[in-house]
Each structure stands twice: as C-alpha cells, then as structure tokens.
Amino acid sequence: MANFAYDLNPVQYIVADAVGEPGNRTFFLQARAGGSPISVVLEKQEVGQLAVAILQLLEELEKQYPHLRQTTSSHKQLRPEHPMEPIFRVGQLSIGYHEEDDMIWIIAKALVINDVGEVADLDSDEIPAIRFVATRDQMRAMSEHALEVISQGRPVCPLCGRPIDRNGHFCARTDGKAMPIVF
After folding, report:
1. 101/87 Cα distance (integer angstroms)
2. What whole-number distance in Å separates Cα of residue 46 and Cα of residue 150?
3. Per the confidence metrics, is the pTM higher than 0.90?
4. 84 by DSSP, 3-state: which?
C-alpha cells in the first residue's frame, strides 16, 4: 500500500477550481477531512481530464451496478477555502472506485524533479502522495464545477485553437493578412 502524506478518507468537501485572471490562472484540487484544507496544483488540462474521467466513471458505474442510486447534480455552489497553500504540483493522478464503501478515490502524486533536472520515478513509494476519498455525489459536483470553471477562461481562436488574449491574438493560420482577433 502506498504511503500517503495525507489520507483524506472521507472528505468533507472536494473542489477543483482556479484562482487568478483568465490567461493567468492557477488550477488546483482542494479538499478537507477534519483539519485545514489540503490543496494541490494542477494544469488546466489535467483538471478537465480529471473531471471528464470521473463523469465517465460515474456513467460506467451506473451501467455496471444498476442497483446503485443515481448521482444527482448539486446546485450548491462549491467554493475553495482561502488561503490556498498548495502542498505540491501534481505529477500523476489516478482514480478508482471502492465498491464496498461506494466511494470514489483520487490519488495525486507529486511532481518531483531530481538533482539532474529529470522527473523522479512516480512509482517510487518516496514520492509524496495524497488520497482523496469522496462519495459519488461529491465527485459529480466537483467534476461539473471544474468543467464550469474551465469554460470561464479565455475564448479559443476558431482557426488555430490557441487562446485569445485581451490584447488581441495574432493567428498564424491567417498568414499575417487578417486583422488581429480581439474580444
């Protein structure tokens, strides 16, 4: 069994959110189980992939276990607690389901860079890890909130797919002959 720096089992709340202005946001996963909130930093894409993976897992669970109660969308607004002081930047995420307890877990392992500038082996037991264990309803709420937060970012250029900054966007697909895209 892995050595967890923190084992939040079960969490009182869990949220994936961001702080800062679009284009300069820091994304994180935060939860509390008793004491102070525990936060880890992720990339925007990682938050999105985690949210989608959990929603897919929930869908698969409801098909595989038809006796399970369907999860419901919570209209309660999720908010992170401040100050948000991350423990580490995530290098690896794993998700799973514990059937006996009907709980979903996320294991976040730290991104550790060794002395030579290489990423340390994430399979090592010496890499700090945190386990978040939550109900299916909590995970659905966290995932839906995360996707909402991601959608509030900068608009994407319809030609090149890169984000459009407030100061404008030079799109390489226009070959320099079009007006810059500004929102």
Report:
1. 27
2. 11
3. no
4. coil
Q: Please give the CATH topology (third level) of the domain spanning 6-152.
A: Secreted effector protein pipB2 fold (3.30.2450)
On whether the CB atoms of residues 73 and 54 are closer than 8 A, the answer is no
Which of 153, 145, 144, 137 lies closest to 17, judged by CA? 145
Q: Where in the chain is the domain with CATH 3.30.2450?
A: 6-152
List all residues 6 or more positions away from 124 whose beta carbon is below 8 Å from its beta carbon.
none
Rounded to whole angstroms, how far apart are CA atoms 147 and 16? 9
> Which of 18-22, 86-90, 119-123, 172-176 is modeled with the greatest confidence?
86-90
- HSE (side-chain half, CA atoms, 13 Å) at 157: 19
110-142 burial code (b ≥16 CB/10 A, e <16): bbbeeeeeeebeeeeeebbbbbbbbbbbbbbbb
